[in-house]
Amino acid sequence: MLSEQVYAQLQGAIMRGDYSPGEALKPQDLAREQGVSLAVTREALVRLVGEGLADRLPNRGFAVPLLSDHRWQEIAEARRVIEPAVLRMSIERGDVDWEARVRAAHHRLARTPAYVPEEGEHYTGAWAEAHRVFHRTLLDACGNRALLETFDRLWTASELARRWSAHRDPDRDGAEEHRRLEEAALARDADTAAAVLVQHLTLTVAALTDASGQASP
Amino acid sequence: MLSEQVYAQLQGAIMRGDYSPGEALKPQDLAREQGVSLAVTREALVRLVGEGLADRLPNRGFAVPLLSDHRWQEIAEARRVIEPAVLRMSIERGDVDWEARVRAAHHRLARTPAYVPEEGEHYTGAWAEAHRVFHRTLLDACGNRALLETFDRLWTASELARRWSAHRDPDRDGAEEHRRLEEAALARDADTAAAVLVQHLTLTVAALTDASGQASP
DNA sequence: GTAGCATCAATAATCGATTATTGCTTCGAT
DNA sequence: ATCGAAGCAATAATCGATTATTGATGCTAC
């Protein structure tokens, strides 16, 4: 399906920061660039709006969302509310296969360089993906599709907001927090794991919104 | 915008149960019925898929979702995980205006008949809406759009699943639980409110999935 | 009688063109 | 010079028609 390809391409471009926040996404231009018809780009854009990756201004077309600092903090708070609870369920229910996948995901994350000189000031695409997979894997033994879909949605919004947050903090990748998270999860220590996760989320949002922008290990 | 109207119409029809689960949603038929072009119905259907109110079968078109009993229980579990936490925040942060809106929403819910003979075996549209507004109002003082959007999404999925659940239980409308919920919320008793909410959600899913189908006050 | 292939009708996906709306620009009046 | 209204260019929204896929039907070969 053509619209699927266009959707994937656009999603990647927006998440990668190829467009600035607020920038118009003109169906005609996109159609010409990708060599497809208006209907196809239109469908992709409508889907993007549904996922929160584009805004729709009635009769004024589509645009990359403008994320306020406030919105970013709301998303972070939502994650602090939901993810620890899901993590507890996951730790409760996970089997050996899950443990193995957590180890694998953490290993990949720890060994993937977060920043490389030539890719600008942001972390690499490979690290972003490894980061997502690690957090997703931690939760996915909860076995509840509705909760995991909620996680996916919040993660996407979170990454988009983070991409454009005022204060980028290249020194912070939370490696130590990830290590403690893996450790607590595999030890089935739900209290510690939940606490570390809350701290991780709190520090991340703090590093990206505070004027001080404190670095962390 | 035309697609908006078509979307609203379709959403209503699906939630109302005008189509059976699994039934195909043919763009051509819908376009003819509503007197619009294919592009318009197509856009509405794509949006519906995004909201989980329609399934998309690649190259086989759109259809009303088939909800398994398992899926329904997952959604209910997700609500039990998320909503009590949001309710606590709402109780913590709500002001007098919120208290007034909770009272108003509960009053409307309590005074709206849940069932009328002529509207078939299901509760009325007016009651369903009053029910949604009451639960939504309880939570909305949390002030977090991301969390409220999550609630909206889960509520929609929940109502759709409930509509087609195997065991409908016309005697159960949870009036007493709603009363206790209102009482605890206004008394700012977060622990009690959260406990009542969990019980309310648990009883609802139990009444609709158990073969026994026990009625409750 | 059955298995497998070819044909066909239904419809999903896509396209190019048309209509309607918006914000900007320009022109005129005060 | 500035404010306001009319015209204009850009583009969003919509449409009708075309192409591609699918699942079903019926035919043929064994």
Automatic annotation (TrEMBL), chains A, B:
<keyword id="KW-0805">Transcription regulation</keyword>
<protein>
    <submittedName>
        <fullName>GntR family transcriptional regulator</fullName>
    </submittedName>
</protein>
<dbReference type="InterPro" id="IPR008920">
    <property type="entry name" value="TF_FadR/GntR_C"/>
</dbReference>
<dbReference type="InterPro" id="IPR000524">
    <property type="entry name" value="Tscrpt_reg_HTH_GntR"/>
</dbReference>
<dbReference type="InterPro" id="IPR036388">
    <property type="entry name" value="WH-like_DNA-bd_sf"/>
</dbReference>
<dbReference type="InterPro" id="IPR036390">
    <property type="entry name" value="WH_DNA-bd_sf"/>
</dbReference>
<feature type="domain" description="HTH gntR-type">
    <location>
        <begin position="1"/>
        <end position="67"/>
    </location>
</feature>
<dbReference type="Pfam" id="PF00392">
    <property type="entry name" value="GntR"/>
</dbReference>
<keyword id="KW-0804">Transcription</keyword>
<keyword id="KW-0238">DNA-binding</keyword>
<dbReference type="InterPro" id="IPR011711">
    <property type="entry name" value="GntR_C"/>
</dbReference>
<dbReference type="Pfam" id="PF07729">
    <property type="entry name" value="FCD"/>
</dbReference>
